[in-house]
Specification:
By secondary structure, the protein is α+β, with helices and mostly antiparallel strands. The chain is 23% helix and 36% strand.
Length: 134
């Protein structure tokens, strides 16, 4: 049985902003071979501003949502006792959608459930190790 996964991260520092969040997401996705991203304003109850993250899927010829992100609202940080001026950027990314884009899978059902193609699993590496220029 395959289980859907989510990758979540948070970064805490002084005076983080939306530009920092976008830079982190762009760098992350460039490193895994997905340089084409778009960001769309969104609503999330714990972050403001918030953005949906989209990656371009060549096989489908369209933009696919791959995650959500934002900056934690200040009142969410108060119970944590963080120093004044502290900001927290956060993102949660689906692992299935980037996998679809990187491996050119057109239907998410090909990765899960009774329709999974076991030869796809056997023939593709668990990890993609590619050389990136610094």
């Amino acid at each position: 049985m395959c289980i859907r996964d989510r990758y979540q991260r948070r970064v805490r520092d002084k005076n983080l902003n939306l530009g920092n969040l976008i830079a982190v997401l762009k760098t992350f996705f460039e490193k895994i071979g997905m340089p084409h991203l778009r960001f769309k304003p969104a609503y999330n109850p714990y972050t403001e501003p918030s953005m949906e993250v989209f990656g371009y899927h060549n096989g489908l010829k369209k933009w696919v949502e791959i995650g959500n992100s934002g900056i934690f609202r200040p009142e969410m940080l108060l119970p944590m006792g963080l120093p004044p001026g502290t900001s927290v950027i956060a993102w949660g990314l689906s692992l299935e959608r980037p996998t679809m884009i990187l491996y050119r899978v057109n239907n998410i059902r090909e990765l899960f459930g009774h329709n999974i193609n076991l030869s796809f699993v056997k023939e593709n590496p668990l990890c993609r190790l590619e050389k990136f220029s610094a």
